[in-house]
C-alpha cells in the first residue's frame, strides 16, 4: 500500500482505513517458510481483523515441508530435532504485522499481510526465520547501526507451453512445465530484447509501484528470458519482506499472462544462463544518520567500520553459504570467469570478486555488494547471515587483507562447491551455530541433508547417458 496517506497514523489504523476505503473483501495472511516461500490462509476481512491482536491458528505441518517432497516429520527419531512446543505437529499462531499490508493489484478486493509465527504459549517460534532476522537487526541497533539493504535479483520468464497437469505428472515433485523462450537473449542490456518482454515486464513494474515497493528498474538481462530487477535501498526487514512479495508477485503475474517465471538459479533449458541475487549492504549510523561505510580519509575504500564489516563477511563466507545458496542447483553458478564468485575475496569495483565495493570512496552511497547469493534463498536467512558475519568483523576488528588483483586467481579461499560442502562449513562455523541456536541450526541442517539424500538417491540424466549404453 502506498505510504502517502497520513503517515502519522499507526500501521493498524492505516490498514483498517484502507480495507474500508478500497472495499477489501479478503486478506491473504502468510509467512515466509524455511525456504522463503509464502504459506498462508485467505481470510475474509472480518476474520482477518479479529486475528490482528490475537493471531490466527496455523498448522505447524508447513514448517517441516521440503521444497517438493513429503514432510520431514519432527517426530521421526532419525531427525533428532528436539523441538519443544512443536513436536507432534500442533497448531501454531500466526500474528499479523500490519506494517506489511499491501493491496494486490492483480486480484480485485484482495490484500496481503505477512505475520510472525508464535507457539501456543505466545513465545516466538524458534524456527520463524523472520523473527530470527529481527533479532540480528536488534543486535546491530544496539551497536549503533541500522542495516540498509538493496536488492538486485535475476530470474527467468518463459512462455508456458504445457503446464503438464495430468494425473501422472502430479507427483512429488510434479513434472516441470514445458516452456519456450520469449526472446533469444545474449544481447546484454539491449533495448530491443527488453521490448520483446515488455508486455509482461510492464505488468510487473506497475504492480511493484502500485504496492508501494521502491522499484528502481526492471529489464532484460543476459540469457534468453533472463531479467534483472533492482530496488532502492531499504531497512533490512523491509528488504526481506519485499523479496518475499516480489517472488510471489512475479510468478502469479506471469502465470496470469501465459508465462512461467522461475527464480531457480540454472534451469535445465538449452542456453539458459545462471541467475544470481546480489545483496547490496551498508550500515547507517543511528546517531547521525550518515553512511557508516563512507571513507574516513584513510587509504582504504571504506571507513574502518566498513572494512571490518567486509572482513567479517569474508571470514564467514564458507559458513554462510548454506544460507546464501541453499539449493543443490545454486552451486552450478560458481564457475571461473562467469561474473559469479568462486573465492572469498574482495575488490573495489571488481565484478570478479565475491565482495565488490561500489561507489567513490567519500560518497555517501558507497556500499558492499555481495555477489554470492542465489535468487531462491530465504531472504531472512540470507540477510541475517550478512549481519551476523559483518558485526563479528566489527566486534573482533578483523582485517580484510588486500584486494584481489584478479577475481579468479588461485591461492584464495574457495567457496563451497556443493551444498554438501556448504553444510559441513556451516556446522564448523561456531559463530553461526551460536547465533542460530541449537534448534534452528539442527532444523536447517536436517532439511538440507534430507534434500541432499534425495538428490543422491536419484539417477540423473548424466548418469544414464554416461553408463547405460556402454556397460
Summarize the structure.
Catalyzes the ATP-dependent biosynthesis of glutamine from glutamate and ammonia. With 471 residues, the chain is an alpha+beta fold.
Question: What is the strand and helix layout of this fold?
Answer:
Elements: H1 11-21, E1 26-32, E2 38-44, H2 45-51, E3 56-59, E4 91-96, E5 102-103, E6 110-118, H3 129-142, E7 145-162, E8 178-180, H4 191-196, H5 198-210, E9 215-220, E10 226-231, E11 234-235, H6 236-256, E12 259-262, E13 277-285, H7 304-315, H8 321-324, E14 346-348, E15 355-358, E16 367-373, H9 379-395, H10 419-428, H11 430-457, H12 461-467
Parallel strand pairs: 1-6, 14-15
Antiparallel strand pairs: 1-2, 3-4, 4-6, 5-6, 7-8, 7-10, 7-11, 7-12, 7-13, 9-10, 13-16, 15-16
Helix pairs in contact: 3-9, 5-6, 7-9, 10-11
Domain GS beta-grasp: 22-122
InterPro entries: Gln_synt_N, Gln_synt_N_sf, Gln_synth/guanido_kin_cat_dom, Gln_synth_cat_dom
GO molecular function: ATP binding; glutamine synthetase activity
The CATH H-level superfamily of the largest domain is Glutamine synthetase/guanido kinase, catalytic domain
What is the multimeric organization of the chains shown? single chain
Rounded to the nearest angstrom, the radius of gyration is: 22 Å
What is the CA-CA span between the terminal residues? 62 Å
**Shape-level CATH architecture of the largest domain:** 2-Layer Sandwich
- Percent strand equals 15-25%
Query: Roughly what percent helix?
Result: 25-40%
Number of strands: 16
Q: How many separate domains make up the residues? A: 2
Order of helices and strands: HEEHEEEEHEEHHEEEHEEHHEEEHHHH
